[in-house]
């Protein structure tokens, strides 16, 4: 995807949003050209620079599709996506995408190696990222020696290693147990506060969205469109456990569940 808000000298106007999605439509067609699924219909939203936005919505409503279009991995059928950054976004998927034959350090270094970054620079950057994600002691471990949560840390470290402005996360903690998930949420918040990335994070968990986000976008059932854009008022830095003592957390939880039209006990 070509950045469309970069001025001729390569600088990014400070006022430009990080991501602007306008009237986005995505239909999937079968090989004969007959439309089979309208995945997303008229999706509109803007993400400011440095903002943390979560998207929630029913299964199959087009969340991943929208994220993949923003990442440049999928073509929109109609509408526009503008990225206010010179570099394409980095992406973290639900399943940790580690290369099993490489060590943790080599996995994290992989994007730098592809770009031909000199070895000493690679080492310095990788050791920063291992420290940031709590993996320093596992630098030489292979993926089969790691827990699911640690593998997902490797994926996060690798997505951050080449310092792109925008981080797209597709249910990155969805496969983890509740406790590991809480730990990684806290760490992700700490990393985000330090790095100032712009983040879009997809989750099925209303709880997770309210814990992490500045804003929660709620999508309708397929064909997905944004039905609500809720500001999350909790001050930063946040403590993922203490947040749950705040009555506003539960009021907002109720509000999002109402929008999803599913009662919390289902
Ligand atoms: N490559 C594809 N070809 C055909 N249909 C697709 C393709 N990718 C996604 N779809 C369809 O588009 C719709 C939206 O899928 P998508 O994965 O974006 O939903 P989602 O909201 O991320 O779902 P979930 O929350 O269950 O992960 C689904 O009906 C899916 O079957």
TrEMBL record:
Q: Which SUPFAM superfamilies match?
A: P-loop containing nucleoside triphosphate hydrolases (SSF52540)
Is ATP-binding set as a keyword in this record? yes
**One GO molecular-function annotation for this sequence?**
ATP binding
Tree of life domain: Bacteria
User: Per the database record, which ranges form the ABC transporter domain?
Assistant: 19-246
- Which SMART domains does the record associate with it? AAA
Gene3D superfamilies the UniProt entry points to: P-loop containing nucleotide triphosphate hydrolases
Keyword annotations for this protein, in alphabetical order, are: ATP-binding, Nucleotide-binding, Transport
A Pfam family cross-referenced in the UniProt record is: ABC_tran
**Signal peptide residue numbers:** none
Q: Which family is it part of?
A: Belongs to the ABC transporter superfamily.
Name by which UniProt lists this protein: ABC transporter ATP-binding protein
What is the native source organism of this protein? Answer: Chelativorans composti
